[in-house]
Design a protein that fits this description.
Layout lengths: L1 H31 L8 H8 L13 H6 L9 H12 L7 H5 L11 H9 L4 H10 L2 H7 L1 H10 L20 H13 L9 H18 L3 H22 L4 H4 L13 H4 L2 H14 L2 H8 L9 H10 L3 H19 L3 H9 L16 H9 L2 H25 L7 H7 L12 E3 L4 E5 L6 E5 L2
Antiparallel strand pairs: 1-2, 2-3
């Protein structure tokens, strides 16, 4: 019995000691984390770079038209977009279900045949071409005329600028409908007179390059990348149905324009990402993020209060801003330098300087977002120049002559290597191997 009492006594001592040590450690931790940091030079760069452009009321903002893409047929697209934008500005944790969620319900419907086409028709040619050939195109376009017309309205936009707050509360625009509208629009290629083909291609690519230049958040930038790839892929499939001597006459001037520095730049999108992170870390946004239908339990309340004290918003924003600046610099590298950068093995996150006990939650978040992950955005964007050059090469080939010899002679080359594209004689395709995810791009030669 004495041994048991002695054992319990020592266990109580040990437990009490652990509690005291834990209490002292938490007290020290809270003392170290009592204040946030001021904005760093990188953070100030993104704060000062926010878009202050004043746009004319007569200019069309594609973002407003995009918000009006999905509402029911009885609503005017631009008026609906303005209404949605105005309502989004009122979104808060308390008004989400009442004000914001209904704005994205009851969206326009597309026909099952169109859904099948959208799902199965990819940039790679054979399957898409077979699907296109089997479609009753006039009927499908007529049945989905609302989406087609609204997409065509977007093509007259003058700029793209997100007018609503960039934060976790704001729902995303209907990017899915946007891509679907593009596929309907390009399906018209098969129904048009020859003289109308070039303007249609010009209008479509001009719109997507406008978005690529103006997007103020990364997801929008990547949607624009997808739109440009779709354009060249679907146009390339269509051009295989045309006589080789006629293809060159159908190419719009935008195909001949190289990817610009503005289109490659990630600055505007990363300014938006900084703003998104900043808005997400304000108290109201955190309240929304942690909101639950059930009351928090006795464990959740102290845990949330402790972790919120160990997360310093501005110190975390400073870490993010440094990573964004490095990503932005990578995006400005020449094509050959970017390819060399990609060949380096992914480096572990750079050791974060400073006291490891300060802002531990923010430091963990920064360590999980290694810079090379953000570099992949640069690769996807610059791949578009290779896709553009490959598409031009395909349009200038005569399938009755030696393909590889023609590719060697043409001025259109892989921008990363400066070498001619390769021809796959077995599959009758020419290929471009890009740096980004799903970077391989293939076009049929017929």
């Amino acid at each position: 019995m004495k041994i048991l009492r002695k054992f319990l006594k020592w266990m109580l001592y040990i437990l009490a000691s652990l509690i005291i040590i834990a209490g002292l450690f938490i007290t020290i931790l809270l003392y170290i984390n009592r204040e946030d940091l001021p904005p760093s030079s990188d953070a100030l760069y993104y704060i000062e770079a926010r878009d202050q452009t004043l746009y004319s009321s007569e200019q069309k903002n594609a973002y407003i038209g995009l918000l009006g893409l999905a509402p029911p047929a009885e609503l005017d697209q631009w008026q609906a977009g303005k209404k949605v934008a105005a309502s989004l500005k009122q979104c808060s944790p308390n008004s989400w279900n009442k004000i914001c969620k209904p704005l994205f319900e009851g969206e326009l419907k597309i026909t099952p045949k169109a859904s099948e086409y959208f799902s199965n028709c990819r940039k790679e040619g054979n399957q898409c071409q077979a699907l296109s050939a089997a479609l009753d195109k006039p009927k499908l376009l007529a049945e989905n005329s609302l989406l087609l017309n609204r997409y065509q309205n977007l093509l007259s936009s003058d700029y793209y600028h997100q007018t609503t707050s960039i934060n976790i509360q704001a729902p995303l625009p209907s990017y899915q409908h946007l891509i679907q509208g593009q596929k309907l629009y390009l399906l018209q290629l098969y129904t048009l007179a020859t003289d109308d083909i070039k303007p249609l291609l010009q209008n479509d690519l001009d719109f997507w390059r406008l978005m690529l230049k103006d997007c103020d958040i990364l997801i929008c930038k990547m949607v624009a990348v997808a739109g440009v790839k779709n354009h060249f892929g679907l146009a390339g499939v269509f051009l295989t149905t045309m006589p080789s001597e006629q293809k060159k006459q159908l190419l719009p001037s935008s195909w001949a324009t190289p990817l610009s520095n503005q289109e490659r730049s990630l600055k505007k999108s990363l300014v938006g990402e900084y703003q998104f992170f900043s808005n997400t870390t304000d108290p109201q946004a955190l309240e929304f993020f942690y909101a639950s239908d059930e009351a928090p339990n006795a464990i959740e309340i102290p845990f949330y209060r402790l972790t919120s004290q160990l997360f310093k918003p501005q110190a975390s924003l400073n870490l993010a801003a440094t990573m964004y600046r490095n990503t932005e610099r990578t995006a400005t590298l020449s094509f050959s330098a970017l390819a060399a950068h990609k060949k380096k093995a992914p480096q572990p996150a750079e050791k974060i300087k400073g006291n490891f006990l300060y802002n531990p939650v923010g430091r963990l978040l920064a360590a999980s977002s290694e810079a090379w992950i953000f570099d992949t955005y640069s690769y996807r964007i610059t791949d578009l120049e290779g896709i553009r050059q490959l598409s031009l090469a395909a349009a200038h080939l005569d399938p009755n002559k030696d393909i590889q010899n023609q590719l060697n002679q043409l001025p259109y080359k892989n921008p990363y290597t400066g070498k001619a594209f390769s021809y796959n004689n077995n599959h009758k395709t020419i290929n471009f191997d890009g740096l980004g995810k799903d970077g391989e791009f293939t076009l049929s030669v017929k």
